[in-house]
Amino acid sequence: MMNVNEFYVRNTDSDSPMRIRDGFVYVRKHKDLREVTIVISFMAMFGLNFQITTALMAKEVFHRGAASFGLLGTCIAVGSLSGSILATHREKAPGSLRVMKGAFLFGLASMLAAVMPTYSTFALVLPLCGALAITTTIAANTTMQLGADPQMRGRVMGIYVLVLIGSAPIGSPLVGWLAEAVGTRFTIAFGGAVTCLAALIVMIISRRSDAPDSK
């Protein structure tokens, strides 16, 4: 059950209004929030371009029509629905490590999809991509929500939504150009590799920064 008393924030300081820049400073100073923002930005920019890549795979690679393209979207939706249901059964707060692991696995799944030889095998991998995409973004959303102070939560979530949705206009033209220049399969694999690399680098840096604290 929800506690409605938690819907209201008390003890706010109205004499010190916060600016939009304060939200970026807040995210930069908090390790979990900073890590999630970086990983999700790369994942959204290079990995979450299903509307482009599935259309290109259906038409250019497998030479299928609109119905087959629609079926690929259904496969992603099935995975996303399954992933969202699975995410509701997790009781422990996710944290940035789960986001990084989820993004890494999503990148691997994307690279696996890129090398599938037939339409059927490609369609079979897409539910996995959809499930990993939704569970990772849900974990990121939860981490940002729970990791921010109540008076900063609105700004923090605004930055998260900006990164998640606003990265697409940057990544989509690049994805389209790559697909035209070097092929659709390479483009999907490239997006997965970039996502994996970003998650891995942030994970390594995070563990190194935590090492002195464990001594």
UniProtKB/TrEMBL annotation:
Ranges that cross the membrane: 36-57, 69-87, 99-116, 122-144, 156-179, 185-205
Database matches in Pfam families: MFS_3
Membrane topology of the entry: Multi-pass membrane protein
GO cellular component: plasma membrane
Compartments where located: Cell membrane
Keywords: Cell membrane, Membrane, Transmembrane, Transmembrane helix, Transport
InterPro entries linked: MFS_trans_sf, TM_effector
Keyword set includes Cell membrane: yes
PANTHER family: INTEGRAL MEMBRANE EFFLUX PROTEIN-RELATED (PTHR23513), STAPHYLOFERRIN A TRANSPORTER (PTHR23513:SF11)
Coiled coil: none
Protein name per Swiss-Prot or TrEMBL: Unannotated protein
Gene source species: freshwater metagenome
